[in-house]
Amino acid sequence: MNTELLWQSLENYISLSESEKVLILSKLGTRKFKKGQFLVFAGGKSKVTNFVIEGSVMAYFTDAKGLDHIIQFAFEGWWISDLKSFITQKEAILNVQALEESTVLELSYEDLEELYSQIPQLERFFRVITQRAFVAFQERILETISQSAEERYRAFHEKFKNYETRIPQKLIASYLGVTPEFFSRMKKKMDW
């Protein structure tokens, strides 16, 4: 199991002993997903949180009209799940799907709670990354209600410039809240 990215991610915020790393490893599972395969289905339960070690994953909501709205992309070194479902252990409202062939480390809610009691600084790590994610979602909501599509795309491009070529254009359009046709026309007009 390739855990180098995981340790880098954790050690950006906390220090771990070798015995703590061994304990964390004992709680992790590894799963591989083919492109298009679901990690979580809306209506099911997000029993685990996923750390992407290879590939890319997206979370999206399907509205009553059947339109998909991309909520989050996750690449190597990022965490993803239906967070509400994972925390409450209730029905998921998001689909979480592999964009590419992907490998993830899985951590169940029960195992995470156990790790919190055995490695208290791990709770700090998840608090910090959850706070950062909340800030990012808040910024995204503000961008959506206050910026033009072009401004939102510039922000997207800046945030995902190392990953953008790995994301299908129609999914970028969905993330930005525009149609694929509008996105294509807008992108052609951009001066970069």
From TrEMBL:
Top-level taxon in the UniProt lineage: Bacteria
Protein name (Swiss-Prot/TrEMBL): Crp/Fnr family transcriptional regulator
Organism: Algoriphagus pacificus
Pfam families referenced in this protein's UniProt entry, alphabetically: cNMP_binding (PF00027)
Domain Cyclic nucleotide-binding: 12-124
